[in-house]
Structures are given as C-alpha cells and as structure tokens.
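About this split. The held-out portion is used to measure sequence recovery: a designer receives only the structure tokens and must propose an amino acid at every position. Recovery is the fraction of positions where the proposal matches the reference. Here is one held-out target exactly as it appears in the evaluation file.
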C-alpha cells in the first residue's frame, strides 16, 4: 500500500522505545512508526494487561520532506490528492493528464499536497536511482474559475479566468473600446426548384426555424420567409419586373448547357435591367420552354445585350460549382 501523504506521530516513539527490547510486537510497531515519521493522535498501548494511553487531541497529514524509494527510475506514478489550483480530476481525462517535470506540475496546481509530493518524486532521493518517467495527477478537491459579467454593453457575455482557484479573483479587467458586434453575412444565388423544399435556418449555432418553399417559388418568396426568422435580416431577392419591353419574336438555340435567345429583327429588345448572374426560370407550357418543355427549368444569365440573351442551365451549373 502506498500513501500520497506522510503520517506524523508525536509523543509516541519515546514511550514505545521503553518496551522495545521486551516485546517483539512493540518492536515491530516502533520500527513501523519510525519509518512513517510521526503521527499526532492519541495512541493506546496494552502490554502484559497494562494499558497505557499516549494523549493528544488532533491529527495531521502532510508530505514527508524525504520519501524513501518513491519509485524506480522510468516508472509512472499516480498522485491523488488536493491542490490550491488546477482543474478537478473529474474534469480531465486522467490518461492524458500526466507530467514529466516538477515545474509543469507547479505551473498548473501551484501549491498543496500534490505539488509537495511531485517535488519529491521528481527530486533525486537517497534510496532511489534516477527519476520517475511520468506523474499522473488526479485532484480530489473541486476548484472553480472566477468569472465576471460584462455590465456594458448588457447581454454581451462574461469574462472567465483560465485559472482554477482563488488567484482568478485578483484578475482585473477594463473594457477600453466597446466595439459593436459586426454580424456575419452571406451572399448566395437562388434558383427556383420545380419541387417543394424544406429549409432549416441556424442563428448563432442553434436551429431556429424550418422554412417551407413551394414548387417554383421565386427569390422574393425565399426573401420573405428568411425575413421572418428572428435574428436575420435579408436584402435582395428582387424580381425583374420585365425582361422585354413588349411582344418579342425570338429564335432559340441550344449548345450543350447553354441556351441562347436571339430576338428577331424589328422585335422588342431585352430590358436593360437584366444583369449577368441573374437567375431566370422558364415555366413549363411557355413558348420558350419547347414543344416537350425540354427548356423548362432554372438558368443563370451568362451574357446579355438588347438583342441576345445567353443562359446556362442550372443542372450543369451544380456540377461546375
């Protein structure tokens, strides 16, 4: 059996010594107490029917100034006890909480029985050769970290010390510049889907809403749904009110994933409001969708002039991006 602390016995070994040669049992007890050191407590001794009480009123536990043969060189030991600082053992993975030098232990746990024992284990002992390989530490007393709520701006959060123990109480803080939070933003391209879709939104890491998009819903519909989510602000999604200035006669040609619409001579022109990067959705049943609606679906505008409009099919855009 090994002890992480050292037992001390006061006012006992001298009385035991008087019976040292008379009784083998007393001799064994005497040698044991000499090995342990000293224990402050009341000790009752019965010899030949006579009971002797060595009085005392309290007990104490501490780490000895020199540990006899703590561990052979290259061995690993476990230190189980208390310390003034450092996280409790329950908060750590014991298999990873090991140290190879006394200074490393002291940096984390500062003082207390764990630190005292580590000092001895990592020191050269009279009856030990070399030093131990690793010291695994499990702190039995719980320590908390000091924290302070930021008063202004309200609701901002709190400051938490990285130190476990009372030293965190002496950390002072001051906010020199109350910089307003810059919210993140994202810009994306929306293409209507021919089927209904459900979307989930996440604000500050938490799922906040599920949005139901109907079949062929436009960007304006999505913007309206997103604008109703708490914590989100939305811009964009504006539909072009008109892409032609009047009735148009046009020729359609397809090459791979590119659909080109060219207006016939004398027909209306394409609106100047159309921009590269806009999305265009061709509904089934329209003249430009083709006899079998082969052109129906979502497209991205790749080039535009008053006479020619080039579109790239959405299905192949997914493969590109």
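Reference sequence for scoring:
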């Amino acid at each position: 059996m090994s002890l992480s602390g050292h037992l001390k016995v006061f006012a006992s070994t001298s009385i035991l010594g008087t019976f040292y040669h008379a009784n083998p049992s007393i001799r064994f007890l005497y040698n044991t107490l000499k090995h342990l050191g000293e224990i402050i407590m009341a000790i009752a001794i019965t010899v030949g029917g006579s009971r002797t009480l060595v009085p005392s009123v309290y007990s104490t536990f501490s780490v000895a100034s020199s540990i006899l043969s703590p561990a052979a060189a290259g061995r690993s030991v476990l230190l189980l006890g208390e310390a003034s600082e450092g996280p409790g053992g329950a908060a750590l993975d014991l298999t990873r909480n090991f140290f190879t030098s006394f200074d490393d232990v002291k940096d984390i746990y500062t003082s207390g029985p764990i630190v005292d024992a580590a000092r001895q284990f990592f020191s050269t002992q009279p009856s030990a050769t070399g030093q131990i390989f690793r010291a695994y530490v499990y702190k039995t007393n719980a320590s908390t970290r000091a924290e302070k709520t930021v008063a202004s701006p309200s609701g901002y959060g709190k400051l938490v010390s990285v130190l476990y123990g009372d030293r965190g109480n002496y950390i002072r803080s001051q906010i020199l510049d109350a910089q307003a939070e810059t919210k993140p933003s994202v810009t994306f391209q929306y293409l209507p889907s021919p089927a209904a879709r459900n979307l989930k939104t996440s604000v500050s890491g938490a799922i906040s809403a599920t949005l139901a998009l109907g079949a062929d819903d436009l960007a304006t519909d999505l913007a309206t749904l997103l604008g109703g989510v708490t914590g989100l602000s939305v811009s964009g999604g504006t539909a072009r009110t008109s892409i032609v200035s009047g009735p148009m006669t046009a020729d359609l040609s397809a090459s791979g994933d590119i659909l080109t619409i060219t207006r016939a001579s004398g027909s209306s022109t394409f609106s100047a409001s159309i921009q590269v990067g806009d999305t265009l959705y061709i509904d089934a049943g329209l003249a430009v969708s083709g006899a079998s609606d082969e052109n129906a679906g979502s497209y991205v505008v790749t080039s535009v002039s008053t006479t020619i409009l080039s579109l790239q099919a959405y299905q192949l855009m997914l493969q590109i991006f």
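Annotator remark: The chain has five domains: 6-62, 76-139, 144-180, 191-239, 250-320.
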